Amino acid sequence: MTASFDYFIVFAEMRTGSNFLETNLNAFDGVTCHGEAFNPHFIGYPNKDNILGITQDMREDNPGCLISQIKSEAGVLGGFRYFHDHDPRVLDLALEDPRCAKVILTRNPLDSYVSWKIAKATGQWKLTNVKRRKEALAQFDGAEFARHVEALQDFQITLLNRLQKSGQTGFYLAYEDLQNLEVMNGLARWLGVDSQLEALDDSLKRQNPAPVVSKVENPAAMAEALAAMDRFNLSRTPNFEPRRGPAVPGYVAGVVTPLLYLPIRGGPETEVTAWMAGLDNVTPEGLIQKMNQKQLRQWKRGNPGFRSFTVLRHPAARAHSVFCRRILQKGGSSYGGIRETLRRQFKLPLPKDGPDGSYSKADHYAGFSQFLTFLQANLAGQTSVRVDAEWASQSQALSGLAELGAPDLVLREEELAEALPALAQKLGRATPHQPKPAPEDHPYRLEDIWDAALEKQVSSLYQRDYVMFGFAPWQAQESPR
């Protein structure tokens, strides 16, 4: 084996064939792929507690130590699989190192999305015996698919641009290439591996070989959603159009009143949307939502004189709200994995099954304070957990909205009772109603536990928001809730 590279990273996503690629890489003499080495919720594989003696705690404190251990394994070219939501600290380490081989595995986003939906429905993520294959049809969700494509676009363009700027090249593999023995042997030669395979591993089977149209419950809805998208967005991933910062599918537009709401996650989204629905005498579902950029431009052209707005929530109230809704309560949401990681890895004193009658104010204070400590590290890029939109700084969210057009108005939650009816009157609504305040946090309100120490944590954590938007220290009377 020649010394072309010190280690390798396989950039992939769920349902792109990365397990099959890893199996065949491990079939080459002198090559070891260590699974999802930097998955924030486990190390390598579920139920595994270390890689080459490096534990998850050690990796969390210093991701570079695991890379060093992989590089130092004698006589072996080691590597790992990396998805866009894995430890972001590793991305810089790998992309800045020309001695790290970059293998970039892509798949048609529609195929990977439908495969992911079927795997979620059946609970079957790998198949080794076709007799045991579980069947299900995917329920296509246009807005969810748009978010899926957008995430892939952003990540793939990041990879492409970073490699271009550093003068590096990656080895690109399409999902279909994985069944080509010559391509796999070519990958080994590119890695500097002398051994070659005589045949590909056949232990893993393709789970859903049928055409994609036959694998969804609602093909008509899928066709309609895809028709609104640029078809070249569904071809090879590195050729995607430039990234789009704003989350357009989350925008809410009036069907009668020319109002456009650009939500910042973690704020009073439900209450503002319900108020807009009341203006137009429709249900919240009757408003125009889940738009793509083309539909948004059409709405704007069709509503001359429209007004757009967003709403800020005090950082203290916002952090406490997301803690109560997403972290404290145990549920089946996408935050379940983060909750368990915070309990196990970051020692948040959260009740295992959610709060009950024995959960006290002191327990709540301790849990929320430790959550703020986690956020301090998370927003500084020092953890492997994603920076979620519900707790990312509002200044950063507003910058993302501005990429497609900043909102006309940036309102505060505590002024909505006056500001929103006044805005509606300017647009010709004679007797607009007031929005309802957001419900109180449960099981304890922020004012039940608030003190100077928490204020110091929050103001330090969201210093940029305090400075940019002029937030004062939090007081209970400031919140309409």
Descriptive tags:
alpha/beta; five-stranded parallel beta sheet; four-stranded mixed beta sheet; 17 helices; 40% helix; globular
Question: What's this model, at a glance?
Answer:
The protein is α/β, with parallel strands linked by helices and about 475 residues long. It has 17 helices and 11 strands. About 5% of the residues have low confidence.
Write the layout of secondary structure elements.
Layout: E1 7-11, H1 18-25, E2 31-33, E3 50-51, E4 54-55, H2 56-61, H3 63-72, E5 77-82, H4 88-95, E6 100-106, H5 109-122, H6 142-166, E7 171-174, H7 181-191, H8 219-227, E8 252-253, E9 259-261, H9 269-279, H10 293-302, E10 307-312, H11 315-328, H12 336-344, H13 361-379, H14 394-402, E11 409-412, H15 416-426, H16 452-461, H17 463-469
Helix pairs in contact: 11-13, 13-16
Characterize the structure shown.
The protein is an alpha/beta fold. The chain is 40% helix and 9% strand. The chain is built from 17 helices and eleven strands. The chain has helices at 18-25, 56-61, 63-72, 88-95, 109-122, 142-166, 181-191, 219-227, 269-279, 293-302, 315-328, 336-344, 361-379, 394-402, 416-426, 452-461, 463-469, and strands at 7-11, 31-33, 50-51, 54-55, 77-82, 100-106, 171-174, 252-253, 259-261, 307-312, 409-412. The strands form three sheets. It has a five-stranded parallel sheet. A four-stranded mixed sheet has the order 8-9-10-11, with helices on one face. A two-stranded antiparallel ribbon has the order 3-4. β8 and β9 form a beta hairpin. α11 (315-328) crosses α13 and α13 (361-379) runs parallel beside α16. The longest helix is centred in the N-terminal third of the chain and has 25 residues, at 142-166. The chain is globular, with a radius of gyration of 25 Å. The chain starts with 6 loop residues before the first strand and ends in a 12-residue tail after the last helix. The relative contact order is 0.10.
